[in-house]
C-alpha cells in the first residue's frame, strides 16, 4: 500500500460526505477536529469505516489524536497498520 493517493481520496470523500463540507476546504494537512469536520462520534464512525474498508483494527492505545488529526496522519497510520499485518 505504498501509493497513498487512492486512500487519501477515499478519506477525503468520506469526510466530505459525513461532515457535509466542501471538498476544497479539506487539505491533506487540515486538522480535522480543530476545523470541526469530525467530533468524537465522527471518529468512531471513521474507525468503523477504516475497519470495513481496509480491515484496520484500532487498538485502545492507538486512539491517539496524532493518528487521526489530518488526512496525512490517517494515511500514515493505515499504512503502518498494513505493514504490520
Could you explain the architecture of this structure?
The chain has 85 residues and is mainly alpha-helical. It has one domain (5-84): Non-ribosomal Peptide Synthetase Peptidyl Carrier Protein, Chain A. Helix content is 56%, strand content 0%. It is built from 4 helices and no strands. Helix 1 (5-19) packs across helix 4 (71-84). The protein starts with a helix and ends with a helix.
Structurally, the number of domains stands at 1
Average per-residue pLDDT, rounded, comes to 91
Strand content: under 5%
Spans of 5+ residues with little confidence (pLDDT < 50)? Answer: none
The span between the termini is 12 Å
Characterize the biggest β-sheet: none
CATH superfamily: ACP-like
Instruction: Tell me the overall shape.
Output: globular
Name the structural class: mainly alpha
Q: What's the quick description here?
A:
The chain is mainly alpha-helical and 85 residues long. The chain is built from four helices and no strands.
Core attributes:
56% helix; 85 residues; 0% strand; 4 helices; Non-ribosomal Peptide Synthetase Peptidyl Carrier Protein, Chain A; mainly alpha
Secondary structure layout plus pairing:
Blueprint: H1 5-19, H2 40-54, H3 65-68, H4 71-84
Helix pairs in contact: 1-4
Amino acid at each position: 500500500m505504498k501509493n497513498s493517493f487512492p486512500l487519501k481520496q477515499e478519506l477525503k470523500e468520506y469526510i466530505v460526505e459525513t461532515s457535509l463540507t466542501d471538498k476544497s476546504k479539506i487539505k491533506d494537512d487540515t486538522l480535522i477536529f480543530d476545523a470541526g469536520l469530525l467530533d468524537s462520534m465522527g471518529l468512531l464512525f471513521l474507525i468503523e469505516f477504516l475497519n470495513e474498508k481496509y480491515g484496520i483494527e484500532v487498538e485502545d492505545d492507538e486512539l491517539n489524536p496524532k493518528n487521526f488529526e489530518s488526512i496525512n496522519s490517517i494515511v500514515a497510520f493505515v499504512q503502518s497498520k498494513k505493514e504490520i499485518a
